[in-house]
Specification:
Elements (H helix, E strand, L loop, with lengths): L1 E5 L4 H18 L4 E5 L11 H10 L3 E3 L10 H7 L18 E5 L5 E8 L10 H4 L16 E7 L3 H11 L5 E5 L9 E2 L5 E3 L16 H10 L15 E8 L6 E9 L10 E2 L1
Parallel strand pairs: 1-2, 2-3, 5-6, 6-7, 7-9
Antiparallel strand pairs: 1-10, 4-5, 8-9, 10-11, 11-12
Helix pairs in contact: 1-2
Length: 274
């Protein structure tokens, strides 16, 4: 199975590059299943029902979130209703929505998708290292009848993301970080067969400060201005993510490919195989 994960979609530039690129990517890369993080899709903060429906129409199968999941309150009833929407698993009990779901691709193969949030330099949610045990298979994904197990780990610190990935190594197909909006150069397959990248990067305009127009951030750092309202940069977007192929015998990763399409960044690199 070939799975494409798209990093944080930021504003219109991010939405446009994903919606415009995804149909061809699904065809050309023979993608079976697509997950995208859309917590910054609505003008940089949160998401709306219309935006999510547009992403689904373009070929996204599951949408994940993070600390900005609730920035647009209108998403709450839609998230409760549509099982393709996920928010971090380790929000307290009673929080609307769900943090994990089982889905099928076009051939009926089962995929477990988990959205979870780290805690270092983030809002202190429930412990992600403990919370993941409530949903993750105890052994190989295939033993639990999953073709793939995909984890979006939304967090700031690469150390925390790496420690988490090593803890679940051999039980997930992919652990990929979101939130920092910069693609890291550490795509690899861990000893137990789990593919990992500390951060997938964002889908958005990289002629910016992590997707936002430059001037407010420059003024904050240079002159210690009070924090100004930020707006997404609206130049040409880059689609950043990872393409992972699972091993049919185990459900673990056979290869991982960083994906970078369009915009200012150097384009897609080479495959990393087990």
């Amino acid at each position: 199975m070939r799975v494409l994960f798209c990093g944080d979609i930021v504003g219109r530039a991010g939405r446009d590059v994903v919606v415009n690129s995804l149909p061809a990517l699904r065809r050309d890369l023979r993608v079976d299943f697509v997950v995208a993080n859309a917590e910054n899709a609505a003008h940089g903060f949160g998401m709306t029902e219309k935006i999510c429906l547009d992403l689904f129409d373009a070929g996204v199968d599951v949408i994940t979130g993070g600390n900005h999941t609730w920035d647009k309150a209108e998403i709450i009833p839609f998230m409760e209703q549509d099982k393709r929407m996920l928010r971090p698993l380790n929000f307290p009990p009673g929080t609307p929505g769900r943090g994990a779901g089982t889905y099928t691709d076009g051939r009926g193969r089962r995929i477990l998708v988990v959205n979870i949030m780290a805690r270092l330099f983030m809002e202190l949610l429930d412990d992600p290292f403990r919370a993941i045990e409530d949903v993750l298979p105890l052994g190989l994904p295939k033993h639990a009848k999953y073709e793939a197990v995909l984890i979006d780990l939304h967090g700031e610190a690469t150390s925390e993301k790496m420690a988490f990935a090593h803890m679940v190594d051999g039980r997930a197909t992919l652990v990929v970080g979101t939130h920092t909006h910069v693609p890291t150069a550490d795509a690899m397959i861990l000893d137990g067969g789990t593919a990992f990248q500390s951060d997938a990067g964002m889908c958005g305009d990289y002629n910016s400060v992590i997707g936002m127009t430059k001037e407010p951030s420059i003024n904050t750092f240079l002159r210690k201005f009070p924090r100004q309202r930020m707006s997404p940069a609206e130049g040409e977007g880059t689609l950043c993510g990872v393409l992972v192929e699972s091993d049919d015998r185990t459900g673990l990763a056979a290869s991982i490919v960083p994906v970078r399409i369009g915009g200012r960044l150097i384009q897609t690199g080479n495959t990393v195989e087990a």
